[in-house]
Amino acid sequence: MLTRHRSTQDEVPRDALPMVAGVSARRASDFAIFAVVVAACAGAVAFLVHAEDQRVVLSALVACGMAWFAAARFRVIAAVERGAAGHPWLARLVLVAACLAVIVVLREDNFGLLMLATVLIYATVCLGLTIQLGYAGLSNFCAAAFLGCGGYTAAALGRAEGIAIPDLVVILLGGGVAVAIGSLLVLPLLRTRGHYAALTTLAFGVMFNVFLDANELLGGPQGLKLAPITVFGWDFSNDLDLFGMTFSFYANYVMLCLALTAVALALVGLLDRSWIGIRLDAVRLDEVAAQVFGLRIARWKILAFTLGNVLAGMAGAIYAKMTGFIAPNNFTLGDSLMMVSIVILGGIGNRWGVLPAALIVVLLPEKLQFIQEYRLLLFAVLVILVLVLSPGGLLPRRTRTLVAGRQA
Amino acid sequence: MSAVAAAPAILEAKGLSVRFGGLFALNELDLTVRRGEVLGLIGPNGSGKTTFFNVTSGIYPAAAGSIVLDGRDITREPAHALAGLGLARTFQRSRLCLPLSVFDNIALGAQERLPQGVIDNLLRRRTLARAVAALAEEARDLARLFNTNLARRLDEPAVALGMIDRRRVEICRALIGRPKILLLDEPSAGMTHDETNQLIDEILDVQRSRGDLTVIIVEHEMGLIERITDRCVVLNYGRKICEGCFREVAADPTVREAYLGHS
Amino acid sequence: MSAIGQYVLNGLMQGTIYGLVAMGFTIFFGVMNVIKFSHGDVMTFGAFGALVAATAAAAAGLPTGVQILAAVSTAVGLAALLGAGISRLLILPLRSAPPLNLLLMTMMVGTVIREAIRLFFPNGTNSQRFPALLPPGGATVGGVFVRYDGLILIVAGLLIIAVVHHIINRTRFGLAMRAVAEDQETARTMGVNFFRVVPLTFALGSATAGFAGVISGLYYSEINYGMGLLIAVIGFSAAIVGGLGNLWGAILGGYLFAGLQTVVVATLPTFSEYKNVVAFVAVIALITWRPTGLLAERASERV
User: Quick one: DSSP state of residue A133?
Assistant: First the structure.
């Protein structure tokens, strides 16, 4: 009997055991590791985005991959997590500083900033998908459609004569319309399970696209043009002059997207570490048991679906305004699949995983021109490899440990 | 025993039937369970024991008849409403959320009294932290009843636990909601003889420490039934064929026939 | 009157293609509990194989009958091989992974096939003309003009459905397949060679898709690399509406979907672009009404 107990205890990962001695010293060193890693990541992102030469990009990518592998191998990632958990507010400060540093370094790189903003848009949608797929286990193979809802809302409101709605409100309305259109899917999603639910969203995504293509009012296949964002009189199409430096106008969008992504990250994090997070997990893992213990499954599914769609819709409105033009082609089934892939690539249910995953998925084809033509092919192969070799993704989700205290 | 016999009924099934297609999984079952009683529900495979649990906990609909829990008709109540009315259960095949921590699993059993609102959950973080601490304390106390180091393992994923500890967590999850009645579906399934014996003692301890807790237990392990139950009901083909204390039931010829087949 | 006849024939043609594809979905699901979303692209792959074979046979100066035979056997063979390969190399090893991972993986496999055809088939980005191998023209029957090729293809499709039904219900292999579908563990202990039956099952389902690819090419005289995607979504829809795992359900679903499309085109010609929108709305509504499909028995979850 006793030996049995001991053996099960030995299987416990070492990180899970309580730290007793030298807690504060370890915390400080963990935090130093955290700061160094964040700085290194920021440096790598700035370098990758800015680099032009294909060979340089490729070798930098290989170096990043090796660094990532080494970090995972030598438990650096675990140390980073502990470091951030030890000083949560300081950790957030370091993250914000790192983001600002990247923007400053890339301030004159139009294309680089546009890519960065696109990465953040995708990351935001994928954070919404994390709530839906990762937590509540709701199929959503039409995330691009909800992105499109936001985008077309912004476009339609921009064309409406005589009404001037502030752009921040337009962005919120984008989220609202995504929720409203998504609510059409609520009943089917609540009534179906598994593959039946997956098909419902898949069919909806295809239908949305066919509808946009056929609809003359929304521009048909040619799409619609949009005006740039203006917030409190500040036109986002103007370059910024700050501290004697000139920033490309795309820096405006990067900051706005950064703010939205930060809000989404905070939302997902707070949700995860709350009673709602436990409930959503229970809904995903075992509906019957969850019901028996008093969960109203419908309520939590609707909540998760709504929150995810708000994020997608808001991101869509910003995306449309940023690129100045949207067409049905931007919101295809392929795009929806890409978003689901990002979530799984990053590590399903791990909110930090979507950032590197979105970066890889958006940046790689843009940077490596020679793979442009082959990008879908290589991307699909990459996703298959990840699914076969490391189904947990880049940053596998950790067990929620509410009792031990907070985590970043 | 006599005190229990005089106690009021807490769960009462009358003419309860459950049908799958043309087959009666339960056929006009009448069953009364008294407050504080430990009732054994036995019978051969497919006799309707688990079906009774599933219809009582609202997973299957009843084709006919009624179930009254503590004076309230729950026949048509949806599954999620029953936890709030004081009913908790475990499952034949362990239904823990394995990737979640032990604490998360136990907290699921207490979810009726945890805040439901988004604002409460997302923004009142201090209140939330206090609630976590309080519930963790409660979970530890419960886990300690099982006399193991389980209480120190609340933050570990349930998948890291051995079979017997998973059962214990399942029972903790059912108990933390402070139910009036607890349905245990084959708690010994998948465990060794020693583990089963240990678990029986623990269940008896728990039941004693909560004097008015009513337990219905479905079990194939007759040693367990003999030691733990005040009374037994034997089912066969969805009907009650015998009722009484274990010794009476075990001596009954119809019961022997049901188990051994026609001789 | 003749217009209606044409619509009916078109609808039947489409329904046969959808039904053949949906049959694969439902067979795979029945046996392995997976959705193989690359199924539509396996069909495309078969159709391109048929194109190459038919062109080669024509270049060799062989008679039309041989050309047809070459096209059909190549399509069926290639699709069966590809399907079996995907199941053996990717689906079997991952069978215990979460369903979402598997679904995503097969979607990505589909993307790989699609992109490979686009990139590596000569001039693959554009539609390819499929040779007309069947007798042209038609006959007027009771005031309705019937295209010969359409008639032949529908009959051929129905024949294939009957053959698949026969294999599943009347052969030893079909028995092994149904045993695996019923209970994997028991089937294995009863001596069913799981690692042979599953790829063969996928080969069977994929072969029907390959045949559907030839039908589609012959009837519309054109194929393109992307045609599998929409067919996959429609075939999946049809299998779901009928009830996953139910062969007749899949076929019913296929004809139902085609019927809806045809009704929209016939009654509202100005909205014909919306035919798929209407059909998908109907699909979603049908699933909402019958969450486990029209013909599936309501399986109660074991608790």
Answer: I
DSSP B21: T
pLDDT on residue A110: 84
Contact list in B for residue C303 (CB cut-off 8 A) is: 50, 54, 59, 91-92
Interface list for chain C against chain B, based on CB atoms closer than 8 Å = 300, 303
- B105-120: string of b/e by CB count within 10 Å (b at 16+)? bbbbbbbbebbbeeeb
Rounded Cα distance between B139 and B144, Å, is: 8
Q: For the beta carbon of residue B123, count every other beta carbon within 10 angstroms.
A: 12
The ipTM value here is 0.90
Give the tens place of pLDDT for each residue, A144-182: 999 999 999 999 988 877 777 888 899 999 999 999 999
List subunits contacting chain C, requiring 3 or more Cβ pairs under 8 Å: A, B
Question: Phi and psi dihedrals of B42, rounded to 5?
Answer: -125, 170
For residue A23, the model assigns a pLDDT of 58
| Token pair listed for C121 | 């088939």
| Nearest CB partner across the interface for A388, out of C94, C111, C288 | C94
Q: Find chain B residues with C-beta within 8 A of C300's C-beta.
A: 20, 60
Q: Does B91 touch chain C (CB under 8 A)?
A: yes
Question: What Rg, from alpha-carbon coordinates, does chain C have?
Answer: 19
Between CA B26 and CA B241 the distance in angstroms is: 12
Q: Which residues contact C237 (CB under 8 A, 6 or more apart)?
A: A199, A203, C253, C257, C280, C283
Neighbours of C135 (CB within 10 A): 11
Q: Cβ atoms within 10 A of the Cβ of C285, count?
A: 12
**How many residues are there in chain A?**
408
Residue C264 confidence (pLDDT) above 60: yes
List the one residue out of A253, A304, A288 whose CA is nearest residue A133: A304
In DSSP terms, which residues pair with A231 in a beta bridge? A234
Confirm if B109 and B102 have CB atoms less than 8 A apart.
Answer: no
Across the A/B interface, how many CB contacts are shorter than 8 Å?
A: 130
In this structure, what DSSP letter does residue A136 have? S
Is A12 within 8 Å of chain B by CB? yes
For A124, the token pair is: 């935001």
Beta bridge partners of C271: none
Nearest residue on chain C to B19, alpha-carbon basis: C300
Given CB atoms, is A8 within the 8 Å cutoff of chain B?
Answer: yes
Pairwise CB contact (< 8 Å): A1 & B194: yes
Positive or negative, the Cα torsion across B111, B113, B117, B121?
negative
> Which pLDDT value is given to residue B262?
55
Residue reference for tokens 């990962």: A13
Q: Which of C100, C101, C111 sits opposite A376 (nearest CB)?
A: C111
Residue B163 forms contact with A (CB below 8 Å) = no
Contact yes or no for C300 and B20 at CB 8 A? yes
User: In the beta sheet, which residues pair with residue B14?
Assistant: B66
Residue in this structure with the two tokens 């990737």, named with its chain if needed: B99
| CB < 8 Å to B18, chain C | none
10 Å Cβ neighbour count for A109?
Answer: 18
DSSP C38: T
Strands C144-147 and C138-141: antiparallel
Task: Find the closest chain B residue to A2 by CA distance.
Answer: B148
